[in-house]
Amino acid sequence: MNDRDKDTLARLVKDAHGRIHRCVVCGATTTGFGVFFPDPEWNVALGAPSGKTRHVIYGLCESHSTLPYDVLAAAIVKALEN
Ligand SMILES: [Zn+2]
């Protein structure tokens, strides 16, 4: 990831503070944000075209802030399906 990409992600996460108010897992008030970079399996589940990688900015509450990767990935994909 180059410096421009890092700056873009930092801006997107900063913007998320005003847009994302609910935990992606349970809907509680967020206490933090993250950027999900899916591995190839989850990238397909997110509907990304071949050769493209989607990233997702998400919010988490305090109790879900340390989820294992697969649990978090499944919650993000489920949230996007709804
Ligand atoms: Zn939660």
Unreliable parts: none
What ions, cofactors and ligands are bound?
Answer: zinc ion
Overall pLDDT score: 86
* Domains, number: 1
Oligomeric state = single chain
β-strand number: 2
Main pleated sheet = 2 strands, antiparallel
The DSSP helix count reads 3
Strand arrangement across the biggest beta sheet: 1-2
Helix content class: 40-55%
Radius of gyration: 13 Å
Shape: globular
Order of helices and strands: HEHEH
Strand content: 5-15%
Secondary-structure content class: alpha+beta
Termini separation: 31 Å
Care to describe what's here?
This protein has 82 residues and is α+β, with helices and mostly antiparallel strands. It has one domain. Helices cover 44% and strands 12% of the residues. The chain contains three helices and two strands; from the N terminus they run αβαβα. A two-stranded antiparallel ribbon has the order 1-2. The longest helix is centred in the first third of the chain and has 17 residues. It is globular and about 35 Å long. The termini are far apart. The relative contact order is 0.20. The model has no long low-confidence stretch (mean pLDDT 86). The site of zinc ion has 8 residues, from loops.
